[in-house]
Each structure stands twice: as structure tokens, then as C-alpha cells.
Design a protein that fits this description.
The structure holds 2 protein chains of 2 kinds.
Chain A: H1 2-16, E1 20-21, E2 27-29, H2 30-42, E3 47-49, E4 55-58, H3 62-72, E5 79-88, E6 99-108, H4 113-131, E7 136-142, H5 143-152, H6 157-165, H7 170-182, H8 188-202, E8 209-210, E9 213-214, H9 215-226, H10 232-246, E10 249-251, H11 255-265, E11 287-292, E12 305-313, E13 316-325, H12 329-332, E14 340-346
Parallel strand pairs in A: 1-5, 7-11
Antiparallel strand pairs in A: 2-4, 3-4, 5-6, 6-14, 7-12, 8-9, 10-11, 12-13, 13-14
Helix pairs in contact in A: 1-4, 7-10, 8-9
Chain B: E1 6-11, H1 14-26, E2 31-32, E3 41-44, E4 47-55, H2 57-66, E5 71-75, H3 76-81, H4 84-87, E6 90-95, E7 101-108, H5 117-130, E8 135-139, H6 142-151, E9 157-161, H7 169-172, E10 177-182, H8 186-190, E11 193-204, E12 206-211, H9 220-227
Parallel strand pairs in B: 1-4, 1-5, 8-9, 8-10
Antiparallel strand pairs in B: 2-3, 3-4, 5-12, 6-12, 7-10, 7-11
The chains are: A alpha+beta, B alpha/beta.
């Protein structure tokens, strides 16, 4: 009952900020999840086939349902929406429920990124104020900073793509850094053996296909690999820079200074201004505001600003609100690009 | 089924059947069938409380989890591929020195540019971005393949279930790559496939397994001891 009253209070507050309530379909096509997250997330879905053989699933997340709704309505107008409801995911933890109660709010279809980002964070802080939690930490990060850093490093393009793609998978990302450090992804013996076959294949029709790939695609990639411009010593330096960057944590007001000093130290020619941290002035002594270069790495779809609000419950900090910008989500699902930013409130924090 | 009878599942065909029967032979346990070679039931001479049931190696695992057989012989690969609720109901009592095979990830031999999983991951990404579809992996082992690929950072793929002759999948348009069980690699090679350098998913061998539902059944311990 208490939790229901609190969630009603939060919903009223969101509504008062001009967000419009929407109902989301409880079922969606499994292919969208597969497009976004591949097979691994699919194992957590409650999926089934309809009578026409179409694979459907109970919605595992409300954000995906919401952006799908927007994109399928073919609207280009900016929309401020909110929703609440249940999402369903299988779990391998005995104590974890398969039903996740979610409240979310989003601004879709607006290119004024800074303004909308600020509004999402602002609304989140207002929710925090009305939540009854006294002490909290607001962490803000920005994936664009990481991407800028990677673009400036002296590593082959395919390595840049790898590092950006696996930023979200921390354990695998660390494994990649080890390989980058030791320069161990090309075996010269294999390259020599394959070179003669490479020359033979060059003589054939380049549009001929082997298992869905043309000879041209195969040979061009082989070419790119063996012409890897990376020096063995640079792997170590680049790994050091990346690790050091990801360790940066500081008060938000000091973030531009600390980041600029870091980029200057390694002569990377990147300048960080306040535009990376869209935040209005906040007068709240109980809210600590931090910058973190590596926060929010567990949610794959964010494309630039990421934030989270953790509240003090007992002696522990627990996640209460998290959000960010996800402009690439719809294109990853195979649709047109939609500018989108939003946040989700974790009601389980009250349990 | 008689509650006092110990039911033993043995693979019904192939090399695994032959090698399993050898285990009994070595232990001087003589198996006989009343209706000849095609009889799917058997007995052991002098052990009147034991019944032999010949089953598919996959079926052995299923029946062990249900408690319909008490002891079974099957491959470690099939055990690990089964769902977690099935694995939780089975004990591995012994790993034998036969039935060795590896579950591996194999790609078309002409994909010269792909040597490791890092390469495969890039190709999978190319499929998604340029061809607007996911890289397909044909396999009889969807659970193990999914876990392995994900643990190695490859996430943009789609599994295609295969029931047999998986090696042809890349050349018939069913899938681009495969994961399959192999002991020497000869079949893969003969079908123009190559194992990825770091593409070993699991090492497998024949195992003696016991149903956890039958642990207290009379006579089980004695037979497990005899077969060990």
C-alpha cells in the first residue's frame, strides 16, 4: 500500500511536468529484442509463438516498448511521455522476482539534446525530493567522452570499433585491453600460410559468395588485418590511457578541469566544456553530485549522457533512478533514428 | 516400473554403445537380451534386480532427471547442454577414458580473415550493420554455444537449431557458421570447415551418471561400485 501511494505520488509529479501518460503493449515481437541484444538477452524472455508462427514475448523492458510505440506511430513531433507497469524477465537468482515494476518518463523526437537532458535530470531530482530519502548521490557521465578518447588514440580502426562496442561489457572489455596490451590478435604463421590462398582467391570473381560473404569482403578484411599499423609498444601506452580515464571520478564542478588536464597530459587534443554535463544549478546540501567516467556501463543502449541517483538506505547506497540519452536505440532495432532521453524509477528500493 | 529394480540406461547405438558394453565386459558383468540384438531391454546375468534399457544418449539424461532410470551412460556434452533443472537432478559418478570429443566453433575454410573469436565478432557486427541481419550459428547445442559466445563477447548472432548434418549448414544457406562435436576434425575438414583458434567450447567424454532421485534406492551403491 505504502509503495502504491509513493508510486502514485511520483506519477502525479511527472504528470505535473508536462509528461503524458501512455499505455504500452504487454507483448512485443521477439525479433526486436534479438536485433538489439542478440541471443543472450533472449534467454531471459518469456517468449511464445502465435498461430501464424510469429515469435512474441512478454515485454522485458518498458523503454523498448515505448520507443517502438513512438517509431511505429510514424510521428516526428516531440513527445513527452510517462508510463508505469510490469516488465517480465526470467531470473537465475532465487530471490529475484520475474516481475519488475517500472516507472519511466521520456522525451522522444527532439533534437534539442542539452535542454531535454537537463529536463530529464531536473525531473529526476524533483522525484528524489518527494521520495523521502534524505541523502543521495547523483552521478553523471557521458559516453561521448569515452568515444572521443578512443578516436584520438593511435590504434587501428577495427580496435577502436571493438573498444567502443564492448565498453558495455566490462569483463570482456578488460580482456580486450589485455589483448591490446600484448598485441596478440594476429598470428604471423597463419597469415603466411593464408597469403598463398589469398592470392589464389584474388584471381576469382570477387562477387562469389561463401556462407553469406563475398570473396571481396573476405579479402578486403584480410588485407586490412595484415596491414595493421599498430606498433607493439603503443598497445601498452593506449591501455594505460584507457584504464586511467575510466578511473576518473570527481566532484562534477571539477570535472572539466580534471578531464582537460588528463587529455593535455597525453596530448590528445580534446577539450571538455560544460555542455557534456547538462545540469541546472542545484541547491541541495544532501545531494552529492559526482562525475564518473565509467558509471552505467551495464545498460547497453545509452549513446551520450548517462546518470544515476543512488539513495542512502541504511548504510548502503541503492539505485533509485537511472537514465540517459539513447539516440541509437531505434536504429539498432532496425527503424529510423529517433532522438530520445529518459529515466526509470526503481520502485524496488522501497521494498 | 518395479521399485526394487535398478534401471540402467545405455546408449542404443554407435561407438558409445560399444565402449559402454565393454565397461560391463571388463567388470565381468554379462549383459543378455531375451529377444536378440534388436531388443531394447536387457538383463545382467546373476544380478536379477537390474534391468538394462537401451536409449538415445540424450534420452538417457532426460530419463535420469525424471528418475525413470537410476544409472545411465552418456556424454558430458549432452549433460552440460541440458537445462539447469535437469542437471541439478543428476550426479556424475565417473568420467571414462572413452567417448572423447570436443564441441567446437567452426567456420568456412575460405573465411581467411577469421582466425579468432575477435575476428568472428567483427564479422558478426558487419552482418548486422551492412547486411541488416544477424550472423547465424547452426548447432545441436544451443545452450552451450550461446553461453560460450556470450562469454567471449560475441553477442550479435542468432542460433539455428540443427538436428543433424550440421556441417552442411554454411553451404545451404541455413547458417553462416556452426558449432558441432568432433573428435578428429576430419568431418569438418572434409566439408570445408575450419575450427577457430580459440573456438573450443567444451571437452567431452563418456560419463557414468546417477539420478539424484534414486540415491537411497537399494542396490544402487553396489552397482555404481561395480562399474567404477
Amino acid at each position: 500500500m505504502k509503495s502504491k501511494n509513493l508510486s502514485n505520488k511520483i506519477l502525479r509529479l511527472i504528470k505535473s511536468k508536462g509528461f503524458k501518460n501512455i499505455e504500452l503493449d504487454p507483448v512485443l515481437e521477439t525479433k526486436y529484442i534479438l536485433q538489439r541484444s542478440g541471443e543472450n538477452f533472449k534467454r531471459l524472455l518469456f517468449s511464445f509463438y502465435d498461430l501464424n508462427g510469429k515469435e512474441l514475448c512478454l515485454r522485458p523492458d518498458l523503454t523498448i516498448s515505448s520507443v517502438l510505440r513512438f517509431v511505429q506511430n510514424k510521428s516526428n513531433k516531440k513527445q513527452k511521455v510517462f508510463y508505469s507497469g510490469e516488465a517480465f524477465r526470467k531470473t537465475y537468482q532465487k530471490q529475484e522476482s520475474i516481475i519488475k515494476n517500472q516507472i519511466g518518463f521520456e522525451i522522444l523526437g527532439s533534437k534539442d539534446k542539452q535542454k531535454e537532458d537537463r529536463e530529464i535530470i531536473d525531473t529526476s531530482i524533483k522525484i528524489l525530493k518527494s521520495s523521502g530519502f534524505k541523502k543521495a548521490v547523483l552521478k553523471i557521465g557521458n559516453v561521448e567522452l569515452f568515444n572521443l578518447l578512443i578516436n584520438k588514440l593511435d590504434v587501428p580502426r577495427r580496435w577502436k570499433n571493438r573498444l567502443k562496442r564492448y565498453y558495455w561489457n566490462e569483463s570482456y572489455f578488460n580482456e580486450l585491453l589485455k589483448r591490446l596490451e600484448t598485441n596478440a590478435d594476429i598470428d604471423p604463421v597463419f597469415v603466411e600460410i593464408d597469403k598463398s590462398r589469398y592470392l589464389k582467391m584474388r584471381k576469382f570473381n570477387s562477387s562469389k559468395e561463401v556462407a553469406g560473404r563475398t570473396y571481396k569482403e573476405i579479402l578486403d578484411r584480410f588485407d586490412m588485418k595484415i596491414k595493421d599499423p599498430r606498433r607493439s609498444s603503443s598497445g601498452k601506452i593506449n591501455t594505460k590511457i584507457i584504464k586511467e580515464f575510466l578511473r576518473i571520478k570527481c566532484e562534477l564542478k571539477n570535472a572539466p578541469y580534471i578531464l582537460n588536464k588528463f587529455f593535455q597530459k597525453y596530448e590528445l587534443n580534446i577539450f571538455v566544456g560544460k555542455e557534456f554535463f547538462p545540469l541546472n544549478k542545484i541547491n541541495n546540501k544532501n545531494l552529492k553530485i559526482e562525475f564518473s567516467a565509467s558509471d552505467g556501463r551495464d545498460v547497453e543502449f545509452y549513446s551520450s549522457m548517462i546518470f544515476s541517483i543512488e539513495v542512502k538506505k541504511g548504510k548502503k547506497l541503492k539505485n533509485f533512478i537511472s537514465g540517459g540519452r539513447y539516440d541509437e536505440l531505434t536504429s539498432n532495432l532496425g527503424f529510423r533514428k529517433v532522438y530520445a532521453a529518459g529515466a526509470a524509477v526503481n520502485m524496488a528500493v522501497y521494498e | 516400473m518395479n521399485k526394487n529394480t535398478v534401471n540402467i540406461g545405455i546408449p542404443s547405438k554407435g561407438r558409445l554403445k560399444k565402449d559402454t558394453l565393454n565397461v560391463f565386459k571388463k567388470k565381468k558383468l554379462r549383459i543378455y537380451s531375451e529377444r536378440g540384438e534388436r531388443d531394447l531391454f536387457g538383463h545382467i546375468k546373476k544380478l536379477t534386480n537390474v534391468k538394462i534399457i537401451y536409449l538415445h544418449a540424450r534420452e538417457c539424461i532426460e530419463q535420469l532427471s525424471l528418475g525413470n532410470i537410476d544409472i545411465g551412460f552418456s556424454g558430458y556434452d549432452l549433460f552440460k547442454e541440458s537445462e539447469i533443472n535437469i542437471q541439478n537432478k543428476i550426479l556424475i559418478s565417473k568420467k571414462y577414458d572413452f567417448g572423447f570429443a570436443n564441441l567446437v566453433l567452426a567456420i568456412p575454410d575460405l573465411w581467411l580473415d577469421v582466425q579468432t573469436l575477435l575476428d568472428l565478432d567483427e564479422v558478426a557486427d558487419e552482418f548486422k550493420k551492412k547486411k541488416k541481419r544477424l550472423l547465424r550459428v547452426a548447432t545441436k547445442y544451443p545452450n552451450l554455444t550461446r553461453q560460450f559466445l556470450y562469454s567471449k563477447g560475441v553477442t550479435q548472432f542468432q542460433l539455428v537449431k540443427s538436428l543433424g548434418s550440421t556441417e552442411v549448414a554454411p553451404f545451404t544457406g541455413t547458417a553462416e557458421i556452426i558449432s558441432d562435436i568432433t573428435s578428429t576434425g576430419a568431418t569438418l575438414k572434409a566439408n570445408n570447415l575450419r575450427i577457430l583458434k580459440d573456438g573450443e567450447i567444451l571437452k567431452s567424454q563418456a560419463c557414468l551418471m546417477q539420478s539424484k532421485l534414486s540415491i537411497k534406492k537399494t542396490g544402487i551403491k553396489k552397482i555404481i561400485r561395480l562399474l567404477n
